[in-house]
Structure formats: structure tokens, C-alpha cells
Amino acid sequence: MPATVLVVEDEPAIQELIAFNLRQAGHIVLAAPSAESAQHLIKETLPDLILLDWMLPGMSGIDFAKKLKNDGYTKAIPVIMLTARGEEQDKVKGLETGADDYVTKPFSPRELNARIKAVLRRRAPQMTDEMVDVAGLALDPVTHRVTGNGAPVELGPTEFRLLHFLMTHPERVHSRTQLLDHVWGNQVFVEERTVDVHIRRLRRALEPTRHDALVQTVRGAGYRLSQR
Ligand code: CA
């Protein structure tokens, strides 16, 4: 599954270079020249990862990182800070505010890709091949097998991706738009009610082992996977 990466960088040449490199690596790229415009973008699409330049016009990268980590809606998004050479103090401060990693400019595309991969593996488990288990419902991304209390559960490919996303982001409410972004990717012609159809199919498949109760509707907000 490709990751949606938001690049917040005010220098157009660097932003383009990073965006090109990310697209080559199969990611979906969102770009913003300032923290303020990044905030608007995030309201529309929740990225899987943010690459955040330290020195930005207006709100600084560090203040933006703090803001992201203090907001329940965005705090789980991993942040990689982009710093200039020799700003050792900045790196320390950046990590203290909750950034997950930092990369010093100039960096090679290969180095950046390696850092992104490492952070995603750590912070966004649905990007990896790790087995997930919630209350006896187990999903194996490698074999695409799902079991409820050991018994096989048959799921279509969309229901499988939907369940994988929900299981790796439990206890959080996801709007239909966010689910479309994360599960359907950039298939722009999919309507929001499609999400409801697939949630219904998913619940039906989970009914025999009563795991359908994990998939909860949050009125007026969206869906969440919760054991409570
Ligand atoms: Ca800058």
C-alpha cells in the first residue's frame, strides 16, 4: 500500500525534488509551502507521514510539529524534520517536540527513502507486513488471511484493506473521506456511501465470531474499530 506523504517545504526546488523522489518510490504526494497551508490540506486528507522543513515562513516547522502532536486528530502522524546542516541543537529540539526523525539537508534520495521506510514501519503498521490481532480477530497481510478465534473469515479485497486499516488505527474515529483516502487511495470517483456498503459487508463477514461489534459507527463522524 503506498503512503500519502505531505511535504511542507517553502523552497520550490527542494519541494519538487522530494516530491519527484517520493512518487518514484510509489507514494502519493501532497505538498504545502507553509505550515498554514499544510493545516488546510490536513483537514481534507490525513497523511500517513509528514516531511517538515524546519525553516518556514510564518509558523516555524518546530511550532507546527508541536501543534500536530498536541492535536488528537493529527498526533499519530509520524513527522520527519528536514534541517539544514550544522543545526545540531535544532535536531535535539525537534526530537523533543515529538518529531520521529530528522534528515539533514542536503540528503540523498536513497537516504530519505530509507528514513521514510523506517518511520512508517515504526509508526504506521498497516504499511508493513506485520500480523495484527485485536480481541481474537487476526489478520495476516502477507498471506491475506483473516481468522476470528482461529476460524477463517472470507473477505473481499476492499474489505480486507478496510479491516487492515481499522485494525492498525484502533480507537480512532475515521471519517468516510479519510477511509476513502487511506483504503481506496486516489480513486477519485468513489462516492462516500461506497464506504458504508463495504463496512456492511465487512460486518456481515465478521458476524459468525461476533467480531462485527468491533466495527462501530460513530454518528455524524464515521467509523472506528474499538473493543470498548
Ligand atoms: Ca525552508
Give a written overview of the molecule.
The protein has 228 residues and is of the alpha/beta class. The chain folds into 2 domains: 4-127, Rossmann fold (3-Layer(aba) Sandwich); 132-225, Winged helix-like DNA-binding domain superfamily/Winged helix DNA-binding domain (Arc Repressor Mutant, subunit A, Orthogonal Bundle). The protein has helices at 12-24, 35-44, 61-70, 88-96, 109-123, 157-168, 176-184, 192-206, and strands at 4-8, 28-32, 49-53, 79-83, 101-104, 132-134, 137-140, 145-148, 151-153, 215-218, 222-225. A 5-stranded parallel sheet has the order 2-1-3-4-5, with helices on both faces. α6 (157-168) packs across α7, α6 (157-168) packs across α8 (192-206) and α7 packs across α8. Calcium ion (CA) is lined by residues 10-11, 53, 55-56. Residues 10-11, 53, 55-56 line the site of calcium ion.
